[in-house]
Amino acid sequence: MAANLVNILMGGVFHAAILFLVAAGLQVVFGVQRIFNLACGSFYALGAYVGVSAVQAFTAAGGPPALFILPLALAGLLVGVVGVVVERGLLSFVYDRDETFQLLLTFALVLMLEDVVRLTWGTAPYSTSALYLTYGQVNLLGATVPVYNLIVIGASLAIALGIGWLLARTAFGRIIRAAADNREMAEALGVDMRWVYAKVFTLGTALGTLGGALVIPATAAMSEMGIELIVEAFAVVVIGGLGSMRGAFVGALVVGVFRAVAIAVYPELEMLMIYLIVIAVLVLRPRGLFGRVAV
Amino acid sequence: MLGVAAAAVLALPLAAPVYHVLLMLPFMAYAVILLGLNLLFGYTGLVSFGHALFMGIGAYTGAVLTTHFGVRSLELILLTAAALGALVAAPVGALCVRYVKIYFSMLTLAFGMLFYTFLLKFYRLTGGDEGIRVLRPSLLGFDLEALAKIDYLAGPYYYYSLGVLALAALVMWRIVHSAFGLCLRSIRDNPAKAEALGISIARYRWYAFVISAVYAAAGGALLGPPTGNVDPTLAYWTHSGNIVFMTLLGGFASFFGPVLGAFVFIFLQDTVMSVVPYWRLVFGALLAFLVIFAPGGLMGLFAGRRPGEVSRV
Predict the structure, then answer these.
(1) Cβ contact, residue pair B114, A276, below 8 Å
(2) Using CA atoms, how far apart are residues A200 and B35, in angstroms rounded to an integer?
């Protein structure tokens, strides 16, 4: 019984760790640029596919299997540079438009990236599952948990702390917070907003692609994984509160664990419960648990 | 212009290849849906990312009535779909219209996905991811089972859909050119002033929401018979996104813009897919181009309006 419970909880927390990365990317972009990026799920899918390819190239070149996580994480981070291209090449044209158009532009990205993935990697699922248990498994209160899951949970926590440190303690973090509070004032004080936006969007993209890369050993990359994840990430940020990092953290835990419990107890209810929570939060407390943006 | 279009559409089944006549069927269904969506988008300034919910309700109404209840009359199906659409839209809309902009879009998206998961998971009722078959409906009391499927669709069903579209357009024309339509536009352009003039903003937005849901449900019911099957992807969020895309493509600032958008979308998609299977790549690029350079859509290009004038909904 206890073992079963630990199994379910650890599965939920692993999923939450991945969800947090994508949701954090969504939050940092919304917080500063006021753009709700529907394409964050597509970045996640892109990171997943590039991650698989990197690991396959690594093992084909004779790299030791125990080190596979290095090319995986590196590829996940590096593919985040598409963020600069997207921000400078597309989004920078619509900052002065109504947010409807910004939303639709990110929807255009969703459409394009889905086919870019199909075009590059085909439609068959891609996986590196053979490497999933490279680091072995540990026994936690009678449940067996893959060590890889614990590594990802640890990495996600470290990134959460890192983002917190970046926002609270560094000069760049102060600029980000200033830009989120009052764009005109920040600009008047001599902040080059174009650079801030490019950096922030790239950071958001890299978080999503890293999340996609890290999830891969535990599952397989599929072309629909992006549009499926976006609705979960969306649930996370609504529950946590748009634009709030703490909200992304708590929201990811709520959605991840809730989903794991629902799948184990009553699979029909899985996402249904999540959407009901989302609607309840939007109706009762539209700023979410930690949001500060007034509607 | 409109007369030429009407004559062409009337004569099409006599002159055009059957393939293109059949492509007109989803176009007419989407045209009905978009006329409703644009009451919300173009005239009231609210962008729904969850209208797949109401299309799904309409399509599944037709499927459930024909397969489980033996109801074959399309008139009855359309009326039931519209009524169910209104029934669901009334409480959903009451909650959604309390918010505007991104929050409205997100709340509608959440409701849409709620319905999608319901369709997917409660397979005893909904057939799960395989969906339900739609049996051939009778039109105006005529049982047309004897006709071959192609003849049924390219003949009676075509003109029936056209009739529904014409009626829907006529009613919508009256709605947007009434005092009610004027109130909606004033709410879109300046909510504070509209309220000061005594217009109840929330109530008018709610009316617009329910009417647009009725249109989406009726149009959704027309989507089923041509394919003979409905499945949950009808209610998926990307489907909601696609109809917003169609509206933008045609031009949300004009009455017939969305109808044109549906037409171009359906036929362009068919053309692109006959060359390469990657229509999303092409259409995504097209949408990005529209958003950046031509937010007024095709109608906006004809009217020669500058992007800045239409880009602030």
Answers:
(1) yes
(2) 39
Give A100's contacts in chain B (Cβ within 8 Å). 47, 101, 105, 313
Residue B34 has pLDDT above 90, yes or no: yes
- Identify all chain B residues contacting A111, using CB atoms and an 8 Å cutoff: 280-281, 283-284, 287
Residue in B32, B13, B14 with CA at minimum distance from that of residue B23: B13
Inform me whether the pLDDT recorded for B19 exceeds 60.
yes
Q: What percent of chain A has pLDDT over 70?
A: 98
A211 falls within a domain: yes
Count the domains in chain A: 1
CB contact under 8 A, A99 and B292: no
Rg (CA), chain A: 19
Q: Is residue A165 part of a domain?
A: yes
Contact with chain A for residue B287, Cβ under 8 A: yes
Task: Test B245 with A110 for CB contact under 8 angstroms.
Answer: no
Return the domain boundaries, chain B.
Answer: 2-235
Kindly report the three-state secondary structure assignment for every residue of chain B: CHHHHHHHHHHHHHHCCHHHHHHHHHHHHHHHHHHHHHHHHCCCCCCCCCCHHHHHHHHHHHHHHHHHCCCCEHHHHHHHHHHHHHHHHHHHHHHHCCCCHHHHHHHHHHHHHHHHHHHHHCHHHHCHHHCEECCCCEECCECCCCCCHHHHHHHHHHHHHHHHHHHHHHHHHHHHCCHHHHHHHHHHHCHHHHHHCCCCHHHHHHHHHHHHHHHHHHHHHHHHHHHCEECHHHHCHHHHHHHHHHHHHHCCCCCCHHHHHHHHHHHHHHHHHHHCCCHHHHHHHHHHHHHHHCCCHHHHHHHCCCHHHHCCC
Q: pLDDT tens digit string along B164-221? A: 999 999 999 999 998 888 888 888 888 888 888 888 888 889 999 999 999 999 999 9
Q: What is the mean pLDDT of chain B?
A: 87
| Within-domain flag for A295 | no
d(CA A52, CA B182): 55
Q: Min CA distance, A118 vs chain B (Å)?
A: 8
Residues of A in contact with B99 (CB under 8 A): 282, 286, 295
* CATH number of the domain within which A35 lies: 1.10.3470
Range of the domain at A135: 2-284
Q: Which of B95, B99, B287 is facing A111, going by the closest CB pair?
A: B287
A268–B245 CB contact, under 8 Å: no
Does residue A157 lie within any of the structural domains? yes
- Spatial distance between the Cα atoms of B167 and B51, rounded to a whole number of angstroms: 21
How far apart, in Å, are the Cα atoms of B27 and each of A168, A245, A288, B160?
A: 53, 44, 40, 13
- pLDDT surpassing 80 at residue B124: no
Instruction: Give the total residue count for chain B.
Output: 313
Chain A residues closer than 8 Å to B237 by CB: 227, 231
By a Cβ cutoff of 8 Å, what residues of chain A touch chain B?
36, 38, 90, 93-94, 97-101, 103-105, 107-116, 118-119, 227, 231, 234-235, 238, 267-272, 275-276, 278-279, 282-283, 286, 295
| Burial bucket for residue B67 (CB in 10 Å: 0-12, 13-18, 19+) | middle
Please name the residues in contact with A10: beta carbons below 8 A apart, sequence gap of 6 or more.
A140, A143, A145, A149
| Predicted ipTM > 0.85 | yes
